[in-house]
Specification:
The complex is a heterodimer. By secondary structure, chain A is an all-alpha fold. Chain A has two domains: about 60 residues, no CATH class; about 240 residues, MetI-like (MetI-like fold). In chain A, about 75% of the residues lie in helices and about 5% in strands. Chain A has 14 helices and two strands. In chain A, strand 1 and strand 2 form a beta hairpin. By secondary structure, chain B is mainly α. In chain B, about 70% of the residues lie in helices and about 0% in strands. Chain B has two domains: about 60 residues, no CATH class; about 210 residues, MetI-like (MetI-like fold, Orthogonal Bundle). Chain B is built from 14 helices and no strands. In chain B, helix 3 crosses helix 14. Classes of the chains: A mainly alpha, B mainly alpha. Chains A and B meet through helix 2, helix 4, helix 5, helix 6 and helix 7 of A and helix 2, helix 4, helix 5, helix 6 and helix 7 of B.
Chain lengths: ~325, ~290
């Protein structure tokens, strides 16, 4: 595929580097040409490659080193497993993992199911699709600080709108972000509102690709609405659903901004401390880059499995 | 409608089906409007309330006070103009860097196919597998002291611009688009004596407008929405982005002024979205999956 051997007629045009002759010189010419072609190609690549080298590949390698090093007054020393044991012995460690897993589960229940249902509903409607699609995606475009501080205002137990709505329906008022039992759920609700638009639109596109005959066939077999969803809609969108599921797990396990802005990170009684918030604390509050890197490494290892599954799945989807 | 979905057209055509459809339709539209537009209405309207009304219980659905000065106060007190200018500077700078470096790289990987090109692409895509938040700490340390150059990029726009180029997803999208451009077109250009640069400029780029649009929008929106990275790398209040600046001032201003500031900070991306709705949505569904 690559390096199409140039025919003599082509070689004559672009400033021939060597006279197109027969025999040995020709081999040298094609070598020179291929070298020059490669240099040009690498020239186009170099800018991006340098950026990747400095700001992506090098930090990646450094992450591994940092996890086993200690930096003290600029003195770097190898400390083996010390950082890992610091991390493991931190009382916040297990709480952070528990919160992160709980957050992921809640985010899957809400953030995975809700956009799918929303997409099905929009797809079924014969009118106003454009408007509904626009609505669902609108929050995605807001800067996170705006949506988060807005939610903080809505959640406020004193003057917040949400308790007002609860009161209207005769439900008890809640402390939301200040309640250790509710704070994590409150963060998930806000973050679902902020982020579900993208998933909903992707599902919508997948739903539109389902051939209508499948539904007709299911109806001939006497399938009702739910059975049609179960036997046609879900199997037909399985690839998209599983990709989104993995993507969501990967991104929710890394949640940081929403709890950081909504509850200051830790939340009441540490109820919203997530793993990434803990990493942030190690690095930027305690200046312990080693512990931060060690915890990051644990998260990386855990997520690597999901990433690998994602890549494998998306390859099969490409075929 | 032309396409057949879950509910059969015959079912909908019946009088009972039609009634049920309109009831459901009305409910859905009302619910979606309240859920998605409601908070935004709340934001805009609360931005007009006076200091008492904004924190009164029960909250007022329609503001009784009208205080547009909140917006000008927010603009002046929080120096929104400065924050906005910073953010635009970072966003468009990042866009320029991404367009130049990422497009060139994707073009090279797709059409010029250098030795080791596949390996480079593989290494670039591998970065997508590493959780971004894990890399924040070593990336931050790198910015503090860039190896070889021994520069500290803290509080400089380079800290935003250069890392933004490492967007493997953009390179992937671009490369996949370039792959679909027929080889003959490029061969014809090079037969006419066009250099690779010239071919890129006058053949490839004009065809690639749709994908360039998508990549550009995502580049700008990405910088606009980012929070953690600019908070870490641009601590100087005079250089902060809109997001970080508003956050760090959020405790020092009255609620109504803060909400007015949030409204103004939201407007640019909302306007971008409303104008480029079609491109954004098609880009999302076309490339959104195969990261």
């Amino acid at each position: 595929m690559s390096a199409p051997s140039l025919t003599p007629s082509k070689t004559a045009r672009p400033r021939p580097p060597q006279p197109p002759a027969d025999g040995p010189p020709r081999r040298g010419g094609s070598f020179g040409r291929s070298l020059r072609r490669n240099l040009t190609a690498h020239g186009f690549l170099i800018g991006a490659v340098l950026c990747f080298a400095f700001f992506s590949w090098y930090p990646m390698v450094r992450e591994f080193f940092l996890a086993f090093q200690k930096t003290d007054q600029g003195e770097v020393s190898w400390v083996g497993m010390d950082n890992l044991s610091t991390v493991f012995n931190d009382p916040a460690f297990w709480q952070a993992w528990r919160n992160t897993l709980l957050y992921t589960v809640l985010a899957l229940v809400l953030g995975f199911a809700v956009p799918f249902v929303v997409a099905i509903v929009i797809n079924e409607l014969r009118h106003g699709k454009g408007y509904l699609r626009l609505l669902v995606y609108l929050p995605v475009m807001l800067p996170p600080v705006a949506s988060v501080l807005l939610f903080k205002y809505l959640y406020d137990p004193g003057y917040g709108m949400l308790n007002e709505v609860f009161g209207f329906f005769g439900l008890p008022e809640q402390q939301w972000l200040q309640d250790p039992d509710l704070s994590l759920l409150s963060v998930v609700i806000a973050s679902t509102w902020m982020n579900m638009g993208g998933a909903a639109l992707i599902y919508l596109a997948a739903l539109q690709g389902i051939p209508g005959e499948l539904y007709e066939a299911a109806e001939l077999d006497g399938a009702g609405l739910l059975r049609k969803i179960w036997h046609v809609t879900i199997p037909q969108t399985r690839l998209v659903l599983s990709l989104m599921l993995l993507m969501q797990i990967i991104s929710t396990m890394q949640v940081f901004v929403e709890p950081f802005l909504l509850t200051g990170g830790a939340g009441p009684e540490g109820s919203t401390t997530t793993v990434v918030y803990l990493i942030y604390q190690y690095a930027f509050n305690f200046n312990d880059y080693g512990a931060a890197a060690a915890l990051g490494l644990l998260l990386l290892v855990l997520l690597a499995g999901f990433s690998a599954a994602y890549v494998k799945l998306s390859r099969t989807g490409d075929e | 409608m032309s396409t057949r979905t879950l509910i059969s057209p015959a079912q909908l055509a019946r009088p009972r089906g039609r009634l049920l459809y309109w009831v459901v339709f009305g409910l859905v539209v009302a619910l979606f409007t309240v859920v998605f537009l409601g908070p935004m209405y709340w934001m805009v309207s609360s931005g007009f309330k006076d200091t008492q009304e904004v924190v009164q219980t029960p909250p007022a659905l329609v503001p009784e006070s009208f205080r547009p000065e909140n917006y000008s106060d927010a603009w002046n007190v929080m120096d929104l103009a400065g924050l906005l200018a910073n953010t635009l500077f970072y966003a468009f700078g990042a866009l320029a860097f991404q367009l130049v470096f990422d497009v060139a790289a994707a073009y090279s990987l797709s059409k010029l196919r250098p030795v080791l090109g596949k390996a480079v692409l593989g290494l670039m895509l591998a970065t997508l597998m590493i959780p971004a938040t894990v890399l924040v700490v070593p990336q931050y340390l790198t910015v503090l002291d860039v190896p070889v150059f021994e520069r500290n990029l803290l509080n400089t726009p380079w800290a935003i611009w250069l890392p933004s180029v490492t967007n493997a997803f953009n390179i992937f999208l671009l490369k996949r688009f370039f792959d679909s451009i027929p080889r003959e077109l490029l061969d014809a250009a090079s037969m006419d004596g066009a250099s690779p640069m010239r071919t890129l400029w006058s053949v490839v780029l004009p065809i690639s407008r749709p994908i360039l649009g998508v990549v550009s929008i995502f580049a700008i929106v990405g910088v606009w929405k980012d929070f953690l990275w600019p908070m870490l790398t641009l601590p100087d209040p005079a250089r902060q982005t809109l997001n970080v600046g508003i956050y760090s001032l959020s405790n020092g201003v009255p609620m109504n002024v803060l909400i007015a500031a949030l409204t103004m900070a939201s407007l640019p991306t909302l306007i971008i979205f409303l104008v480029f709705q079609r491109n954004i949505m098609s880009g999302l569904t076309a490339g959104g999956l195969k990261g």
